[in-house]
Amino acid sequence: MSGAGTPDFFYREAQRLGYVARSAFKLLQIQKKHKLIAPGSSVLDLGCAPGAWLQVACQSLGPLKNGGAVVGIDLKKVKVPPLYCDSRVQTVCADVMKLPKNQVRALSPRQKGFSVVLSDMCPLVSGITTRDAALSAELGMQALGLAVGRAATAHLDEIRTDRLLNDSVCTADDNGILQPGGHLVIKLLESEDNKEFSRICKPLFRKASWLRPKATRSSSREIYLICQGLLS
């Protein structure tokens, strides 16, 4: 695999097929393996810039007549890519770390929450491994807390909550925005904290597993936690 920033197979394929970034192939592999997004799904994409996952998510919904919705949130203003996306896709420019769950839930169809939550959020990498991993864990915990609400805190007894638990997880709103039976994908940087994420998620979901997509650059420490079937 080529180094970061160097055009490689997936970069060229993204250019050829009209995806706005090579990261599309990461979600394509996740979708092929786990089939998280079904026709009619409501999908929340956290850290959606530049929009490649919006494209794949909308593709996975099937034809417009199938219904469904895709909402992307990012610190940057993201224009919905014209290829593969349709009227079911919208984007919001906001800081997920400061966004109350009720505001996020209000973006879902009939304000009933989402059936799939995707977090491709990543901190600005400093090159300091421990610092980057800690920031990644903080973003991951934010995504988890947003998805499942206070349920995440029930499994934090032995975990370093000062590093993994953001105050927004423990708001008065006990419920997360992920529907029962729904799926959650969280990108993290490889670290010891990842074991704790597994320990939190496994009691909450029917299945929790790790995946490093083939499209991930060899120099990257990215890994994805795939949580399937939120238990009610």
TrEMBL record:
<keyword id="KW-0808">Transferase</keyword>
<dbReference type="InterPro" id="IPR002877">
    <property type="entry name" value="RNA_MeTrfase_FtsJ_dom"/>
</dbReference>
<dbReference type="InterPro" id="IPR015507">
    <property type="entry name" value="rRNA-MeTfrase_E"/>
</dbReference>
<dbReference type="GO" id="GO:0001510">
    <property type="term" value="P:RNA methylation"/>
</dbReference>
<feature type="domain" description="Ribosomal RNA methyltransferase FtsJ">
    <location>
        <begin position="19"/>
        <end position="229"/>
    </location>
</feature>
<dbReference type="InterPro" id="IPR050082">
    <property type="entry name" value="RNA_methyltr_RlmE"/>
</dbReference>
<keyword id="KW-0489">Methyltransferase</keyword>
<comment type="similarity">
    <text>Belongs to the class I-like SAM-binding methyltransferase superfamily. RNA methyltransferase RlmE family.</text>
</comment>
<keyword id="KW-0698">rRNA processing</keyword>
<dbReference type="Pfam" id="PF01728">
    <property type="entry name" value="FtsJ"/>
</dbReference>
<keyword id="KW-0949">S-adenosyl-L-methionine</keyword>
<feature type="active site" description="Proton acceptor">
    <location>
        <position position="187"/>
    </location>
</feature>
<protein>
    <recommendedName>
        <fullName>rRNA methyltransferase 2, mitochondrial</fullName>
    </recommendedName>
</protein>
<dbReference type="GO" id="GO:0008650">
    <property type="term" value="F:rRNA (uridine-2'-O-)-methyltransferase activity"/>
</dbReference>
<dbReference type="InterPro" id="IPR029063">
    <property type="entry name" value="SAM-dependent_MTases_sf"/>
</dbReference>
